[in-house]
Design a protein that fits this description.
With about 120 residues, the chain is mainly β. The chain contains no helices and eleven strands. The chain is globular and about 45 Å long. The model has no long low-confidence stretch (mean pLDDT about 95).
């Protein structure tokens, strides 16, 4: 079984920074894509950032220039570094890992809460 464990959430003032971590129970190379989603109260879950097993990165427009996604392969860990946080970044952040073979399968962490005070 695959487990994803997030950490690093908390309360931060607007303009501050946080680094979220997602540690997988198996090699990150077991997955085609890993990424971060977030869900604010009464809103749909949205994709924030992704990194493929080839190292290709993408970040949602609202966070470009502020968020970066990276990984430490030896630690089976994916990071989301967040700078210049805004109140609208407040959400539960979920780690996601996807494999494409033998069929498309998504794995999820339980989430870590980020609260940005204004």
């Amino acid at each position: 079984q695959v487990q994803l464990v997030e950490s690093g959430g908390g309360l931060v003032q607007a303009g501050g920074s946080l680094r979220l971590s997602c540690t997988a129970s198996r090699s990150v190379f077991s997955f085609n894509v890993m990424g971060w989603y977030r869900q604010a109260p009464e809103k749909q879950r949205e994709l924030v950032a992704t990194i493929t097993n080839a190292g290709i990165r993408a970040v949602v427009d609202s966070a470009k220039g502020r968020f970066t996604i990276s990984r430490d392969n030896a630690k089976n860990t994916v990071y989301l570094q967040m700078y210049s946080l805004k109140a609208e970044d407040t959400a539960v952040y979920y780690c996601n890992a996807r494999r494409n073979l033998p069929a498309i399968m998504d794995y999820w962490g339980n989430g870590t809460l980020v609260t940005v005070s204004s």
